[in-house]
Amino acid sequence: MRRCSYRCTWTSRRCASRPPRARCPPSSAGWSGPRAGAVPAPPGRPTPAALTGAAAGRAGRGGARAGRTGPGPWPGRRGPRLRGRGGGGAARGFLEQGFDSLTAVELRNRLGAASGLRLPPTLLFDHPTPELAARQLLAQLAGAVAAEGGAVSDAARDEAAGAEPSAVFGAMMREAGQSGQQEEFTRLLMDLSRFRPSFANPAELDRAPALVRLSRGETGPALVCFSSILSIGGPHQYARFAAGFRGHRDVWALGNPGFVAGERLPANPEAVVEAQAEAVLRETDGAPFVLLGHSSGGLLAHEVAARLESTGVFPDAVVLLDIYSHDRDAAVALQPGLSAGMDERSAGQVPVDDTRLLAMGAYFRLFGQWRPKEVKTPTLLVRAGDRLFDWSRDGDWRSYWQLPHTALDVPGNHFTMMEEHAATTARAVEDWLS
Question: Nearest Cα to 341, choosing from 256, 254, 228, 261?
């Protein structure tokens, strides 16, 4: 029998001491994601030594589960359990368990409040499973021990030192937007990104790109989603969209190299396309698949399709969700709307640091003049039905595609079609695939 943060008892029945919309889940179902709302503060900050010992003990009993405490350092308090519906263990990704951008940030806040550590805003985006997040927490706790005079390895100290992100460029980007100098600041990011370490081919990467599972199902083909090259992009942007396929179809998402601290940026477009094409083949292992990308993620989906076709591998389809990246005039005109949407989401959903901003600058530099080549793979263009940008082409403001394709419209604007309207967008794609 366990107790929740509201001191009620978790039994086979729901918690009776809280309002109906805020009651605890049944103990047999596990925990499906962090609860929205305020989190009770811990009774006091524990010592790093006590935290490290407790976390290490849990890790030694079959894998650390970040955010959950046992008796000892934090009396009377239990953090959120990192298990999704149906379980899955510490290696099962947060996004597959039902987390989205908002809930991932909330869990990071809970972990920070419980541990007393200053955790990076992108903790669960950069370390996408409970096991990886726990390792990062242990590294930071080890650094805190060292700061208080304890002994810690050089590797742990280095990892902890790199955990605090820099946000210098974020403040500069907001100032540039307010002063009407967004384009000049974007060029600055593009130039500065040249000084980050890079890779010219996949063999030079310290770690090959890996697909993040968002959904499981038996119906083929699987969907492979490509992240936007905006600073707020990443596998998390498909969390709500993938929910529409759970229990029915496999959905995977692929992050772009260079958006996580310590990762190398591509030195040329071919480097990232080749690395991602290899990742798709490695994960799908001969099974049929569809390549999908929202916004600028569409250009990567299309380029990977072209690369695979050149090797004799043909995806079942390419799905482009509201893409504008192939039109230089549109890309310039869309900047104010994109910047406003990015700023809104970086403040409340997807924390943006200097690593992500410089990565965005690098990808803008590499793909700024991109023009798609024709592919044989059937292509679907899904257009947002609500206008967001002050731009039009021949009187039509909607996304367009000049190569052979099928087009359909869905509710929502460029951003909300993948947020509150994500389920409708998923149904439209599913209907077309079926």
Answer: 228
Taking alpha carbons only, the member of 209, 225, 234 closest to residue 99 is 234
What digits encode the pLDDT tens for the residues 200-210? 999 999 989 98
From CA 95, how far away is CA 75, in angstroms rounded?
30
Please report, as a single letter, which amino acid is at residue 128.
P
What are 79's two structure tokens?
Answer: 């953090």
Residue 404: half-sphere exposure toward Cβ, Cα within 13 Å: 6
Contacts of 191 (CB under 8 A, 6+ apart): 361
Q: What is the SS3 assignment for 246?
A: coil
Per-residue pLDDT band for 89 (boundaries 50, 70, 90) equals low
CA gap 53, 47 in Å, rounded? 10
Question: Chain-centre distance of CA 65, in angstroms?
Answer: 20
Structure tokens that stand for 407 in this block:
């087009």
Residue 300 near residue 359 (C-beta atoms within 8 A):
no
Residue linked to tokens 């000084």: 195
**Element of type H or E holding 226:** strand 219-226
- Quick one: tokens of 129? 């499973």
Angle at 279 between CA 134 and CA 119, to 5 degrees: 25
pLDDT at 194: 97
- The Cα–Cα gap between 345 and 393 comes to 27
Buried b (16+ CB within 10 A) or exposed e, 274-305: bbbbbbbeebbeeeebbbbbbbbbbbbbbbbb
